[in-house]
Amino acid sequence: MSRQTHFLVQSFDPAKGDQLKADAPIACRSEESARRTAERLAMSKAGVVAFSTNSDTETGDYDDQPTVFFRAGRVPAEFDSMP
To answer: Where are the alpha helices (DSSP H) in 2-75?
Structure first.
C-alpha cells in the first residue's frame, strides 16, 4: 500500500440567503503551507477550513473523515463535527 497525505484548503463565499458557496479547493504541500494559505484567505472570505486526508494511491481509497486543523468564519455544518 502506498498511503499519501493530502493537505487542502477550502474557502467559502456568501450566497443567497444564509447559504455558502464553496470555492475551488486549494492543494498545498504541507500542513504549514495549508495553514498559512487558510489564514490569508480568512481575511477576505466568509469562511475557510484547512484539513488533511489520507489516500491509498493503489486502490483509490480515501479517509472518510478528514482531519481539520484550521477553521475560521462561517463554514458548512459538516465541518463542525470534524475534530
So the answer is: 31-42
pLDDT at site 62: 74
Q: Scanning the structure block, which residue is given the C-alpha cell 486526508?
A: 53
- Tens of pLDDT along 33-65? 999 999 999 999 999 999 999 987 777 777 778
Q: Are 55 and 63 in contact (CB under 8 A)?
A: yes
Residue 29, domain member (yes or no): yes
Q: Domain range spanning residue 29?
A: 3-73
Largest CA distance in the chain: 45
pTM of the entire predicted model = 0.87
Residues shown for the chain: 83
Contacts of 73 (CB under 8 A, 6+ apart): 12, 42, 45, 46, 47, 48
